[in-house]
């Protein structure tokens, strides 16, 4: 059997779950035994959730790329590691075998070294979905540099914030990126960002779109030229840097309930073991299968389930540059057919948007290779679940509705495909090693079934975050201080009569727009930067395709007539786009003269949420408001 720790029936799941609770260290040591270690660990786990201080596989030495690449060369050297499908279906696809990927990663790792990169350096990666992005990420890991990948949809300002926070000294980018019918000028965005980033000494630019770019003397170099230099050196091998189990592997920024995104830190060994374990189990991957995750590597899903999980398991992972709706809404089905995809992992927002095109783009596509499906990023509504099941899976493919977070590193609560009995809209049961608990506002455990509460985890798992970069106190406050001795997820959850978990959505001020996490405070800060805006309040409302849309209530310093109002709205949207990125643009803006506040000055978001949702008759108690009249005005002006 390829993966001795792969669960193959429900009884085994129950046994594994039981063992993971009574003897977590023994359980994870058994899994970790199947990886390549330069030196085995002395102790499996040391932890407390107070500080927090979490260490897995202490004293172990390894390099994750030796587990993703080197160890497969003997058996899988000629097996495709990455299949790359370009944005434009008429352009040639690329296939990199494990041997080719290994060679390219070593080559680029040497480029990094030639450019002075050392273990522990932080490197910002801002690229489109091309194989060179995977190569760049793995090359960083090979030399022990900490990568911080920033999604292509973020603005120069957002990139600058992230670069400054991590004090990156090198940036890897492209001239541009193709996405659908758009060319995104990545290098130009980086140039804007770097005006505020003195720590960055080098920029490596990979050619993709041939968009004209300015190359700054002494700072900017071309990827291709640097590769040539390594070739001139005779392509020496690149020995992987020996890393401690708890050395940082990467930083990934994510939104929380405060204005500033935080850099979630994952470390080498625990993350590797966890990404691999969950990939192999949730999707029941079998050697030789083609696996396709539609996420972007700029998000955690891409890190864990396009790159590290599949590659450490020797799987064939398909990487797609484009978007599901271009050139038409049949794009994902054509790709599935073309490469005989066996496992498809996507997001509810993509499913809902494709549903909107009807069955035309699906009919007559050969989807018979599909065996298992996955969903991630937000709650999946039943309609979308059934459409995915029936129209795409033709009723025969199990769906893994995987609940997890940037902070958890990998799947937490999810069906094991084909093994856990599924229920539409439910993430079902925790994976072995995961101990969920529901608590009430006071932190008291809510026991029994048929209950609702805030979702926490009471025991560490190897893939959990270790800190937030540069600010450990923030990590403690955000995740470990709300409830004593528990990791707080920020999600609400119900446990039904069968003990099945259903995630009901965030209970904090975080929105989930098309599966992207956006903090309301972040959007408010951006809106407030616009000249003329006095104050604003942002809430989410149900959106047919995006799951949640962004609704902004804005107070301006001058009353706006209707013609001005439309212009001002556009200006505000443009401002948010500039400051955070297009993904955070408000869907609706309502101008108001005041906001409902308590006597202590707190905005009553509950009321604003209800109004945005159109539930004008169930605003609840408004008696504690400073000025109840303002609610009437807002109701009248509701869009
Ligand atoms: C992997 C990822 C995390 C938040 C999480 C929750 C929501 C993710 C979900 C889900 C319901 C699922 N979420 N998966 N809600 N069902 N299957 O998305 O990470 O970007 O950090 O978002 O997304 O609210 O707390 P991230």
From TrEMBL:
Q: What is its EC number?
A: 6.2.1.1
Residues spanning the membrane: none
| Key words of the record | Acetylation, ATP-binding, Ligase, Nucleotide-binding
What is one Pfam family matched by this protein? Answer: AMP-binding
User: GO biological process annotations for this chain's record?
Assistant: acetyl-CoA biosynthetic process from acetate
Q: Where is the Acetyl-coenzyme A synthetase N-terminal domain?
A: 13-68
Q: Which domain of life is it from?
A: Bacteria
User: Which enzyme class, named as a word?
Assistant: ligase
In which family does this protein belong, per the annotation? Belongs to the ATP-dependent AMP-binding enzyme family.
User: Could you identify this protein by its name?
Assistant: Acetate--CoA ligase
**Gene source species:** Chitinophaga agrisoli
């Amino acid at each position: 059997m390829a993966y001795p720790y792969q669960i193959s029936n429900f009884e085994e799941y129950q046994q594994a779950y039981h063992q993971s609770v009574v003897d977590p260290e023994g359980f994870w040591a058994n899994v970790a035994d199947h990886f390549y270690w330069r030196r085995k660990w002395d102790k499996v786990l040391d932890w407390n959730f107070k500080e927090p201080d979490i260490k897995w596989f202490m004293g172990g030495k390894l390099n994750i790329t030796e587990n993703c690449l080197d160890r497969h060369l003997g058996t899988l050297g000629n097996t495709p590691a990455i299949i790359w499908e370009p944005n434009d279906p008429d352009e040639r696809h690329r296939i990199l075998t494990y041997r080719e990927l290994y060679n390219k990663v070593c080559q680029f790792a040497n480029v990094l070294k030639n450019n002075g990169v050392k273990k522990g350096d932080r490197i910002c990666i801002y690229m489109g979905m091309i194989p060179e992005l995977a190569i760049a990420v793995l090359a960083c890991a090979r030399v022990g540099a900490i990568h911080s990948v920033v999604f292509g949809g973020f603005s120069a300002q957002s990139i600058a914030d992230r670069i400054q926070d991590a004090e990156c000294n090198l940036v890897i980018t492209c001239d541009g990126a193709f996405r659908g019918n758009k060319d995104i000028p990545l290098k130009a965005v980086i140039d804007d960002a770097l005006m505020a980033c003195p720590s960055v000494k080098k920029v490596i630019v990979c050619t993709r779109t041939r968009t004209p770019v300015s190359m700054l003397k002494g700072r900017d170099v071309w990827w291709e030229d640097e590769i040539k230099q390594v070739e001139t050196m005779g392509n020496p091998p690149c020995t992987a840097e020996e890393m401690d189990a708890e050395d940082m592997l990467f930083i990934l920024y994510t939104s929380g309930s405060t204005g500033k995104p935080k850099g979630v830190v994952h470390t080498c060994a625990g993350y590797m073991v966890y990404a691999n374990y969950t990939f192999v189990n949730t999707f029941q991957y079998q050697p030789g299968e083609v696996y396709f995750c539609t996420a972007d590597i700029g998000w955690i899903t891409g890190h864990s389930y396009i790159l590290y999980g599949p590659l450490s398991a020797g799987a064939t992972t398909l990487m797609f540059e484009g978007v599901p709706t271009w050139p038409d809404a049949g794009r994902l089905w054509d790709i599935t057919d073309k490469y005989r995809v066996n496992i498809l992992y996507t997001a509810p927002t993509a499913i809902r948007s494709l549903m909107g095109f009807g069955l035309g783009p699906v009919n007559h596509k050969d989807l018979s290779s599909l065996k298992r499906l996955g969903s991630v990023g937000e709650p999946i509504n039943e309609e979308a679940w059934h459409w995915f099941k029936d129209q795409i899976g033709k009723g025969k493919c199990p769906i893994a509705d995987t609940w997890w977070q940037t902070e958890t590193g990998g799947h937490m609560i999810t069906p094991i495909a084909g093994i856990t009995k599924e229920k539409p809209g439910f993430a079902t049961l925790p994976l072995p090693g995961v101990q969920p608990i529901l608590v009430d506002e006071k932190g008291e455990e809510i026991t029994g079934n048929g209950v609702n509460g805030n979702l926490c985890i009471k025991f560490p798992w190897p893939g959990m975050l270790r800190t937030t970069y540069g600010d450990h106190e923030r990590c403690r406050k955000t995740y470990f201080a709300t409830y004593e001795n528990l990791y707080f997820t920020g999600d609400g959850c119900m446990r039904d009569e069968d003990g099945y978990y259903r995630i009901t959505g965030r209970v904090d001020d975080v929105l989930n727009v098309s599966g992207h996490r956006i903090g309301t405070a972040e959007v408010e800060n951006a809106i407030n930067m616009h000249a003329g805006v006095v104050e604003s309040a942002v809430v989410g409302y149900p959106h047919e395709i995006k799951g949640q849309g962004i609704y902004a209530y804005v107070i301006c310093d001058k009353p706006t007539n209707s013609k001005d109002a439309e212009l001002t709205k556009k200006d505000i949207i443009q401002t948010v786009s500039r400051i955070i990125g297009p993904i955070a643009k408000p869907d609706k803006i309502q101008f108001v003269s005041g906001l409902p506040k308590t006597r202590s000055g707190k905005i009553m978001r509950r009321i604003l949420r209800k109004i945005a949702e159109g539930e004008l008759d169930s605003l609840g108690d408004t008696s504690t408001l400073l000025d109840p009249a303002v609610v009437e005005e807002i109701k009248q002006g509701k869009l």
